[in-house]
């Protein structure tokens, strides 16, 4: 640490502006906190938003180092070191910042190296977007739990009498007059519909699942085939896969469920014929730098595997976006609103993360997943 401080003095003496002046003006105006550290973690520059964030003027802050704001064991130091080590961008989506001058808060951080200044790290902090999205995921987890409890009760209390009703209707079907048969068929069909709903809710149950290496391309292929021979027969599929991708750490059947739900939603968004050439794109990529806190520990897990389901449909209706992943949120008359809640639960059980981007003409669900043999526990 001490030797590094020496380096800092050298850097300061050089007085080379880290960014051209017009960029400084840009950075200053950015509504998100931006902090530039030199190679010794001294603060070289902060913008207005960072002044507010740190509760310190730029003039004062540049007298300090990061260590004056944060406890020495704060994971932000690790992130900064990683940026330097890999000379690459690193992001963290749920970092607790706490220190002598800061009250505890959870933020998302992105760190990036500066090409023209070795050791310098640019930090961009967000407390809203991704961090809140994560909160949402955790809430979804809670909601899914209560749904799980409900599902267990439903399974017990509804399914048995239901099969009685269905059986009785079937018996009647054989003996009633032709004109009344329509009614017994109706009873049977509706009983089936309730059973399907209960089955779907049962999927939220906490049944133990086996995790292992899963070839995500096989999962995607399987779903694409299901889709193209069934509900998405008239939609063009494009696959952009990174063939060198390592296996994801997870459960194959659950991952099929996840991708199937996303592809189904995409197909449904494209089904009204409004889009001229409806298309679903499946992409995989390996990308460093997405990390997530392991709940209850200071460990961070890498989520380098990115699976994207994209469609060129109308986009997610504005009014349901804030609660998109909550159970029973749907814009479709026949929808259950359980698809994305289930997706969120499974991905969160896998230790992964979902991101959504949606605008008319392009909706994208991105799954960030751990690779095998990472241990998600
Ligand atoms: N790719 C998409 N394009 C547009 N809207 C979508 C997309 N995926 C999901 N949605 C919206 O999210 C809602 C919830 O989806 P989901 O949880 O799967 O429930 P359901 O499909 O039963 O409605 C859908 O009703 C739809 O409005
Ligand atoms: Mg759905």
How does this model look, in words?
The protein has 377 residues and is of the alpha+beta class. Helices cover 42% and strands 22% of the residues. The protein is built from ten helices and 14 strands. A seven-stranded mixed sheet has the order 2-1-5-4-3-10-11, sandwiched between helices. Strands 7-9-12-14-13 form a five-stranded mixed sheet. Strand 3 (90-99) and strand 4 form a beta hairpin. It is elongated. The two termini are 33 Å apart. The structure holds adenosine-5'-diphosphate (ADP) and magnesium ion. Adenosine-5'-diphosphate is lined by residues 261, 265-266, 269, 311, 313, 315-317, 320, 324, 329-332, 335-337, 339-341, 363.
Summarize the structure.
It contains ten helices and 14 strands. With 377 residues, it is an alpha+beta fold.
Strand and helix layout:
Elements: H1 2-14, H2 21-29, E1 34-37, E2 43-46, H3 48-54, H4 58-61, H5 75-86, E3 90-99, E4 102-113, E5 121-126, H6 129-175, H7 178-202, E6 212-214, H8 216-229, E7 236-240, E8 248-250, H9 252-269, E9 279-286, E10 290-293, E11 300-302, E12 305-311, H10 339-349, E13 353-359, E14 362-369
Parallel strand pairs: 3-10, 7-9
Antiparallel strand pairs: 1-2, 1-5, 3-4, 4-5, 6-8, 9-12, 10-11, 12-14, 13-14
Helix pairs in contact: 6-7, 6-10, 8-9, 9-10
């Amino acid at each position: 640490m001490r030797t590094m401080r020496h380096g800092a003095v050298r850097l300061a003496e050089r007085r080379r502006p880290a960014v051209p002046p017009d960029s400084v003006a840009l950075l200053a105006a950015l509504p998100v906190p931006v902090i530039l550290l030199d190679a010794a973690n001294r603060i070289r520059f902060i913008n207005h938003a960072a002044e507010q964030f740190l509760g310190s003027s730029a003039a004062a802050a540049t007298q300090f180092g990061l260590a004056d704001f944060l406890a020495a064991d704060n994971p932000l130091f690790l992130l900064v070191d990683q940026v330097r080590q890999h000379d690459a961008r690193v992001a963290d989506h749920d970092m607790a910042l706490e220190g002598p001058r800061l009250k505890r808060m959870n933020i998302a951080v992105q760190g990036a190296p500066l090409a023209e200044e070795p050791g310098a790290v640019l930090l961009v902090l967000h407390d809203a977007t991704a961090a809140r999205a994560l909160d949402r995921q955790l809430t979804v987890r809670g909601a899914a739990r209560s749904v799980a409890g409900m599902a267990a009760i439903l399974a017990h209390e509804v399914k048995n009498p239901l099969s009685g009703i269905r059986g009785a209707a079937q018996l009647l079907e054989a003996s009633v007059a032709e004109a009344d048969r329509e009614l017994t068929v109706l009873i049977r069909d509706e009983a089936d519909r309730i059973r399907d709903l209960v089955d779907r809710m049962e999927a939220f149950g906490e049944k133990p699942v086996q995790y292992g290496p899963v070839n995500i391309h096989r999962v995607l292929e399987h779903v694409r085939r299901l889709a193209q021979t069934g509900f998405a027969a008239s939609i063009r599929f494009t696959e952009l896969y990174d063939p060198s991708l390592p296996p994801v750490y997870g459960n194959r059947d659950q991952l099929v469920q996840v991708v199937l739900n996303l592809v189904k939603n995409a197909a449904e968004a494209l089904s009204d014929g409004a889009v001229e050439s409806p298309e679903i794109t499946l992409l995989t990529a390996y990308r460093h730098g997405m990390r997530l806190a392991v709940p209850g520990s200071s460990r961070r897990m890498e989520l380098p595997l990115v699976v994207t389901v994209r469609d060129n449909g109308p986009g997610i209706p504005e009014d349901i976006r804030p609660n998109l992943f909550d159970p029973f949120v749907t814009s479709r008359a026949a929808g259950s609103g359980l698809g994305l809640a289930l997706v969120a639960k499974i991905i969160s059980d896998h230790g992964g993360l979902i991101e959504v981007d949606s605008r008319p003409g392009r909706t994208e669900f991105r799954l960030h997943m751990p690779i095998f043999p990472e241990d998600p526990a």
